[in-house]
UniProtKB/TrEMBL annotation:
Species, as recorded: Pedobacter segetis
Organism superkingdom: Bacteria
Pfam (any one): DinB_2
Protein name as catalogued: DinB family protein
Gene3D superfamilies xref list: dinb family like domain
Domain called DinB-like: residue spans: 29-166
């Protein structure tokens, strides 16, 4: 995917996720030891905010902290395959990405937070050149250092994965 396709996909995937979350009942109810819908939304918001913050950094800070990539970016399909392998090995969200169990927060507030992070993320991404996406490393809690393009592929896949999760959560909690 090129940068414009990535932007479109990030926007569409997050918008669909939040739309679904906003229409679900019992958003603070957990089922089968899984996160509630609200916790899934908060987790996605945390992840999106982290990507946005990374994209806002100067390239010199990114280079000094995370380095330049010494390889070509892998495809979106390969990244997804690698993630499923990692899931099969029992990976879990690191503590910094685990949502709080706060039943006081309205889902609409969480969605608004996410929408603001999405705007910031896209604004920050717009400043990147196409070639920069393959040049700079980005830290990922499962994969280690990956390219900026790969973190964006992951961002799309990640929200789609949690979208499926909340749709299944609704079936299990009724």
């Amino acid at each position: 995917m090129n940068k414009n396709e990535i932007i479109a996909n990030i926007h569409i995937a997050h918008t669909q996720f939040w739309k679904t979350a906003s229409h679900l009942p019992n958003v603070h109810k957990s089922a089968n030891d899984k996160w509630s819908v609200a916790q899934n939304v908060e987790h996605i918001n945390i992840s999106l905010s982290r990507v946005s913050n990374y994209l806002a950094l100067s390239k010199s800070i990114i280079e000094s902290n995370f380095g330049l990539s010494l390889r070509a970016s892998i495809s979106n399909e390969e990244l997804i395959e690698n993630y499923y392998k990692a899931m099969g090995n029992g990976i879990k969200a690191p503590p910094a990405f685990i949502p709080k169990a706060n039943s006081e927060i309205k889902i609409s507030m969480l969605i608004t937070e996410g929408e603001n992070s999405l705007k910031d993320c896209i604004f920050n991404l717009e400043k990147w050149g196409e070639e920069d996406l393959d040049k700079y490393n980005c830290p990922h809690p499962v994969f280690g250092k990956i390219t900026a393009r790969e973190i964006l592929y992951f961002t799309i896949f990640h929200v789609q994965h949690h979208h499926k999760t909340i749709a299944n959560h609704t079936d299990a909690s009724q």
